[in-house]
Recover the amino acids of this structure.
């Protein structure tokens, strides 16, 4: 596997390969990331991954400084997964001057996750567009665990006419249902035993909505939230929304998604479950 820390070296390599599938990451890789790498191989002969912890998407008081940086282990995992090239720039390489030009997503950025992390999706969209310009892929693979992010990246790519196919991959879970995440490493053993309750709650809410109807979704999601909170969670949001725009559903809506973010101790977990 080739490893590039400088953009000029990556671009020189890129001139000698044709169709590329790209997987951007912040590192501290787990089985979910590696599933994205395997999926990328189905979309191109050359797979390029990136590892970069993007300061722009972290808000004040978030975990930018303590976010795990495990580049040596990540490189070994990527090589074992058959990735052809790794782009691992430092901040000075990707942001050689203060970033004053940003991608401003639509109002969708202010809903749900955006309400609790102001500016987060602005930082995500900006770094993703920048990485797209660095790598120039024909396909890019994103996990659907970050559902709102996946929606915004698809929207940005479409509206800015980028010649990139955005592929969404289903969430990879531990045997007990917990969505794999780099932040799961923050959980204590007791918290890790409790953590699967989030996905269990989403499944129970999905069954309730299918059984009682979307017109009762507001009351049902409130019950689900109370169930989480009584087990020691601190819920930011747990909502039934339309897959198309993450707005509250109308009675005629067929394609729904349940999205959730909640803290367990000091660790904030997100998850989602589609309906229909």
């Amino acid at each position: 596997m080739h490893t590039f820390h400088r953009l000029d070296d990556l671009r020189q390599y890129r001139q000698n390969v044709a169709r590329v599938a790209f997987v951007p990451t912040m590192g501290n890789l787990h089985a979910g990331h590696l599933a994205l790498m395997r999926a990328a191989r189905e979309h191109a002969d050359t797979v390029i991954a990136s590892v970069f912890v993007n300061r722009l998407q972290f808000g004040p008081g978030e975990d930018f400084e303590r976010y795990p940086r495990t580049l040596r282990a990540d490189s070994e995992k990527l090589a074992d997964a058959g990735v052809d090239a790794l782009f691992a720039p430092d901040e000075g390489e990707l942001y050689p001057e203060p970033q004053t030009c940003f991608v401003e997503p639509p109002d969708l950025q202010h809903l749900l996750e955006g309400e609790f992390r102001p500016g987060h999706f602005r930082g995500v969209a900006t770094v993703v567009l920048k990485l797209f310009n660095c790598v120039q892929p024909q396909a890019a693979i994103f996990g659907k665990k970050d559902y709102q992010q996946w929606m915004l990246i698809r929207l940005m790519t479409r509206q800015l006419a980028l010649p990139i196919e955005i592929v969404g991959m289903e969430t990879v879970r531990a045997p007990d249902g917990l969505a794999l995440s780099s932040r799961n490493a923050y959980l204590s053993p007791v918290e890790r035993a409790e953590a699967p309750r989030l996905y269990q709650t989403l499944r129970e809410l999905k069954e309730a909505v299918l059984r009682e109807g979307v017109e009762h979704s507001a009351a049902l999601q409130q019950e689900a939230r109370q169930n989480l909170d009584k087990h020691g969670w601190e819920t930011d949001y747990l909502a039934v929304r339309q897959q198309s725009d993450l707005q509250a559903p109308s009675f005629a809506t067929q394609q729904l998604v349940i999205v959730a973010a909640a803290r367990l101790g000091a660790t904030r977990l997100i998850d989602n479950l589609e309906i229909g």
